[in-house]
Amino acid sequence: MSEDTLVRFEKHGAIGVITVDNPPVNALSPGVPEGIIASVDAGIADPDVKAMVLIGAGRSFIAGADIRQFGKGRPPLKRKTYDAFEASPKPIVAAIHGYALGGGLENALGCHYRIAVASAKVGLPEVLIGLLPGGGGTQRLPRLIGPKIALDLIVSGRHVPAEEAGQMGILDRVIPADGDLLSEAIKFAEEMADVRPLPLIRNDDSKLGEATAGGDIFEAKKKQIARKARNQIAPYNNIKAVQAACELPFDEGIKRERELFEELVSSDESKALRYAFFAEREAQKLPDVPKGTPVRDIKTAAVIGAGTMGGGIAMCFADAGIPVKVLEASQEALDKGFERIRNNYEVSVKRGSLDAEEMEARFARMEKVTNYDDIGQCDVVIEAVYEEMSVKEIVFKELDRVMKPGAVLLSNTSALDIDQIAAATSRPEEVGGAHFFSPANVMKLLEVVKGSKTSPEITATTMALGKIIAKAPAACGNCDGFLANRSRAPFNSEMVIMLEEGCMPEQVDKVMVDFGYPMGPFAVGDLAGLDIGFAGRKRRAEADPNYRMLPIADKLVEMGRLGQKTGAGWFKYEKGDRTPHPDPEVADLIRTMSKEMGNTPREFTEDEILKRLLFSSVNEACKILEEKISYRASDVDVMWLYGFGFPRYHGGLMYWADGLGTQDVYNQIAAWHQQYGDRWAPSALLRKLADTGTAFREAHTLVG
To answer: Is 357 an active-site residue?
Structure first.
């Protein structure tokens, strides 16, 4: 595609309009910056042009750089767009709709003025892919709005709504969302055509003194992010870059920004984060759903069950502006569920992440009902009742009776057979799985499960619905535990089996927190409730006589130690405090039961603990890929990132394993197979990957 096609220059009277047209989001791919510069030069050279407008075609301004180009050794441009803007003797107005992110906002900051529609969002989110704004963003934004607010935006990577951006001073004018942006931008450019001197952000240092006026904001920011940013370098390099803006002349700050950027772009951290970014987008591609499959319009929803999960799912719909009916068997259960929902919203209001008026608007979108007939006209219904097949079958028989033709029927089951649930209806093709993770209103993963009879239209609709309600949807086939929980199950077993050999819960948790998890797996178990895992193990043991129960974990449940809700589980908890404390009673139980099993306690290295847990799940994920339950290894990664809190800067379970190499992973698993028996038997696919030197991320090429 030529530069002329990517960027065009047209005159509207005395205003030259530079239009970036690089679908779908006007990324700064090769040819776009060159085309912008050529257009600016054309506007400068034309004596009839008094000012210019930079605008994006289609749905966005400039969403950012083309990150697929990072690390490819592309020769640097002789001239930067920002330099061309600032050298222009004629004012240039950036007209923003959709998104102006990263390089998009940096281009806008290089312009003299910025106007946006109210629905637009701006930001510098490079930190989220292990980078920093490398086009002057860390130098211009602090000069424009002050280093304190700029630091917060750059280190968080937050997308800022236009109204807020206008209040901050990022934008000079905000027009209504339905306004004619081009016409308004041209009018604005005409107003400013003769105003001199032209405002250049680079020349205004007046706000930079704020950095030291109230204490050292850079040290304060480092302390603030220390827990969340541990093991990462990108957040700290972003802080250093903003600090350079406050301590160095502009051109020297630009040079320092580039040095810090180059340090990041080739780092393992950034490569992993960029992989995760693309893995989430790859998960949207479903090879067995034909292109153009229609997606049903979801305007109303229903949720069966007002418990913790059902309430959280209802909040997802209400937050997205979709009216939702919540059905429970009794008014008492409904009232209790809605009280929990209101409490959740009130916490957000207290934190400042939601205003009271919006809370009431969301709460008003939820309606209490106790009769199935009241939900019959809803477009989608999600069942979120007790995880018991007989209970779910009763629910789906009722749904089959009352729901209108064309309604989407979804189960939130985390492990049960979708085909058996669908068989309770006369329309199994309309039934699928929509597995939310707890708490549903917070966790981003939506595991979309296809039964053997689920229609492509239902799968496509559920995936689209996931995006509408701000989830990260990823699809898989039907089996016990589906993709996420099935791949996680060996991890959950192995962590307890290691206790039988003399390891302690606090040792395991420390290793996993040091690896980057926000919480250790034993503390997470206490948070969720140990009775949940116990019920799942009992169900599997009843179905499979060879299934291995976990005596130590089962004994804790029998003792009434269910986790935080009882004040004791793997750890003990003080009243009103969720901090896990090692419990001598648990240590004594582990030693006693280990001895009864005939085991001799031994020491564990951190490396063994980490690999025993993660390799067990890598092996299971290979079996899932082999059985074609999952499309790609990257889908496994998406589910682990969003469902289990796998550290994003490691890329995902399978990406992390790729960093070690399939041969080394196979060799270790084969050795543990010899030592521990069948549970460590290497999958056939893993063996094939090792034999052929194929990466996990390419595993689908060997499955066919």
So the answer is: no
